[in-house]
Amino acid sequence: MQTTLELYNYEIISKSQTDLLQKAAECLARSFIGLEVSGKWVQEPMVGQLHLDYEDFYQFTKGYLDSTVEQGYCAVAYDRDNNVVGVLAGDTNTPEIIGEDVFEGSFYDMNVILHVLEDVDQRFMEDYERRNGEEIKDGEILHLFMLGVTAETGRHEIIQQLGDKLIGKASSEGLKAVLGEATNPKSIRVMEKYHNMTKYVDTDGNFIVHKYEDNNKLKGIPSTIADGTYILLKELC
After folding, report:
1. How many CB atoms lie within 10 A of CB 84?
2. What's the pTM?
3. Which SUPFAM superfamilies match (predicted)?
4. How far is CA 11 from CA 29, 73, 92, in A?
5. Number of domains comprising the chain
6. DSSP 189-210
7. In a designed cystine with 234, which of 54, 135, 178, 227 is the match (CB 3.0 to 4.6 A)?
8. Does the pLDDT value for residue 231 go beyond 80?
9. CATH code for position 93
């Protein structure tokens, strides 16, 4: 039986690889909007609750990749036919707090997700400054923003390989830490098990979390599916 290392190729892609870049955006969008994998429905809880459209979400993922891929933190897994079956995409930008709605039309409810992420990111940055006596700067932290896997086979190994590539590169380039916003228990388990990240505890001893039950647009998400978005961190040096 072939291993996933034999089934798939793993690569950090660049902006010039337009075919892989487009397929990476498609893989991420399908993963977030929802797909059936081995008889189970896999979907990001906030995206499902807000009924976001695939085409809108694809344009969002493609725009994110186009704007960040040259930083060198978009890793893909693809098969012999160049079908992208896994993506882990990040950046080294300081989290941006816009504080107002930026999405319009059929994608308007994406603003809800944006504000959830801004809430936990802002609280993390404020705590980071209290703890370290200085603000986070661009190029200091790897922000793992989007993970999507559409493969039926070897999903856990794909996640491990993609994470190893990006975190290994971040460590070799002297970045201080790896940051992620986990929106559901599965994401938390993935970050903990495969990337050795942990839930961030602030200087008051609390997790930084945006509880869905306190959000009018997201309180319909069953607590058995997900209870909130958490900050996870892995220090590198």
Report:
1. 25
2. 0.94
3. Acyl-CoA N-acyltransferases (Nat)
4. 19, 10, 18
5. 1
6. HHHHHHH--EE-B-TTS-B-EE
7. 178
8. yes
9. 3.40.630.30
